[in-house]
């Protein structure tokens, strides 16, 4: 396998968040290890190559295998939970600088749903009229 992009310490954080391997009642090909698939996902995302161009020689499995694992882990919420775990660890180590944080409406929904789209033009028009 190529140089590892996932340290042992990071893998210890990620591994418990991954869903268990689905059962194979009919047997089949052995599953690519989760760590190898994660390395393949990171390789594709870092280099920008297409999934179908992921070299088998690197030991990550096929590009389609890595893509499916990424899809399944995303659907299972693995990356959201990992983000929270990493934020918690950084906060415990006092490595977060919240003075540089930025939150916008694409990541945080408005309280009580906020105004509907139909009302937005009237609100904006009302604000423009009051400014003039």
From TrEMBL:
Superkingdom of origin: Bacteria
All residue ranges annotated as the Insertion element IS402-like domain in the record: 6-83
InterPro entries from the UniProt entry: IS402-like_dom, Transposase_6_like
Pfam families (alphabetical): DUF4096
Secretion signal span: none
Protein name, as recorded: Transposase
UniProt source species: Deinococcus grandis
Lineage summary: Bacteria, Thermotogati, Deinococcota, Deinococci, Deinococcales
